[in-house]
Specification:
The protein has 123 residues and is of the alpha+beta class. It is built from three helices and nine strands. The protein is elongated and about 60 Å long.
């Protein structure tokens, strides 16, 4: 897997199978299935992800969408908090410092509001 924090891009190598590549980029996903098969592309992957058919059973493009944005979110931290439209505040709760972050709808995340805690050692 390759994650590009400043491009909203995740590329999975040998997924869903050997010699194939799955790519998540913003709101689109693509499967390059090798030289003898045409690539599969899905624009507006987030909208499709929440359609009733996707809730019954994920296809390879649904898996690429979910794994792609999740990996990008996790591995691009803390750059994620500097993305345009992200609003970060801070507060102290039970002796710990927290960073609540509100994410714009255009930025794919698990939740539009998340809370992060960073220890004094930076972890």
């Amino acid at each position: 897997m390759s994650v590009y924090p400043h491009r909203r891009l995740t590329v999975f190598h040998d997924l869903p199978g050997p010699g194939q590549h799955a790519r998540w980029e913003g709101d689109s996903v693509c499967l390059d299935r090798g030289p003898s098969r045409p690539a599969l592309l899905r624009e507006e992957a987030r909208a499709h992800f929440f359609e009733p058919s996707a809730r019954r059973r994920w296809d390879d493009l649904d898996l690429t969408y979910f794994a792609g944005y999740a990996a990008w979110n996790y591995l691009s931290f803390p750059f994620l908090l500097a993305e345009p439209g992200v609003r970060v505040t801070s507060h102290r709760l039970l002796g710990q410092d927290w960073l609540p972050a509100d994410f714009p709808a255009a930025l794919t995340t698990h939740s539009s509001r998340q809370h992060f805690r960073i220890d004094s050692d930076g972890t």
